[in-house]
Write a structure and sequence with these properties.
Blueprint (H helix, E strand, L loop, with lengths): L13 H32 L5 H31 L13 H34 L1
Helix pairs in contact: 1-2, 2-3
Amino acid sequence: MATQNTASGIPSDIAKLTGPVLLGDFFNWGLFGVLCVQTYIYYIAFPRDRLLPKFIVWFLFMQELLQTILVTRDAFTSFGFQFGNVIDLDNVALMWFSVPILTATTILRMEDCDVFTENVDLMHCRDRM
């Protein structure tokens, strides 16, 4: 159990509780920036791509945008509005939805894209034989 700092009531190992969550939020923002650039490059590089791949890219981008908004909201609530409230660090808020559920649906969509791409490649190979 963490020892309490008697002056402020904050545990002495508060960095072990808040550090990983804060770093995760920073990584989320950084990787979302990478995704923004990749999405922009895709639409610039392939303007005549079919509608289905464009829709899939747009849908995945919107899903990641929603996840980033929800994660940011939770982080700002914990580290902004509730700053210094150690009890609020146990509050899950919307993280139960934003991390496991949105991540799982994103991964499923990505796997669907891989299967779709492999099937299209196989069809083109059969046409050449």
